[in-house]
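pasting for ref. prot 1 ->
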Amino acid sequence: MPAPDTVPGARYSAGGWTDLLGNLWLFGGFATNGFLNDLWKYSNGQWTWVSGAISAYQPGVYGTLGVSSASNVPGSRQTAMTWTDPSGNFWLFGGNGIDSTNGMGLLSDLWKYSNGEWTWMSGTKLMNQNGVYGTQGTLGPGDIPGARAQVCRWVDANGNLWLFGGFGVPASGTEGNMNDLWMYMP
């Protein structure tokens, strides 16, 4: 049961979702004390702290790729890309934040939040990684967008995620503004 005075601290560039019941969810962002990885739910006029740490600059706990766990949690970050799939699962990609080794930089990890647990779905545990570009227009299981933040994203009528550009690390490895287009089928 949430306490009536429990609220997330002030922040900017947080990620967010709306669940299938219309509740607001908030993840991470940047506060005066640094990058955050706390997950909050706002429902019926009250906030509930759901997961993550109350202190800043937390590394990601990745666990096993594709396996959900109560101990998994994305690292602290801001300007990550978020979306909700048609089944109501929350998705989180990249951003600027903390990797698994406490390194700070651009991230390329993909996470799913479902049934109260995080699952690391794709990407790397390390910051500032180059993209892995396969054959243009062809789905490839090894293809991974490079580390990035501040992307444009949308979900199509089939529930596929599309992302365009952002500031990041393309295949060349030189940080900058990007203009690549990716599709992810959950």
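and prot 2 ->
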Amino acid sequence: MSLAIAATAAALFGLGTYLLLQRQLSRLIIGIGLIGNGANLVILSSAGGRGEPAFLDGGPTDGLADPLPQALILTAIVISFGAIAFLLALAFRGWSLTGSDDVEDDVEDRLVATRGGTSGDVIDAAASESGDSDESPR
């Protein structure tokens, strides 16, 4: 692996991780795209050097290019494109409903964070607030 490709992949992973930690959904989508491109660079660099095409007739088999990393990268591109298209549709739907692309905390997450309890405590707290303390959670 050359140093330039390794540094580029590390930068893509770092920037993608930073963007995943943001609250805006648009930055989250860009971060997923950057991490996917970084993973493609890692797969490409693990393929080794260049080789001869594998579809030539009757030649020696040593020094041929390995088609597996190329197939893995192509598959990763298609999957990441589908995931990003789905996330863009979700972001547009959320923006059209709320007018913002901020990701809000869940109410149950806030209860767990303030009380420091487990999810069973949250279910018990929700049941006690609604008055159904004698029933088990559904």
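The radius of gyration is 24 Å.
The chain has a mean pLDDT of 82.
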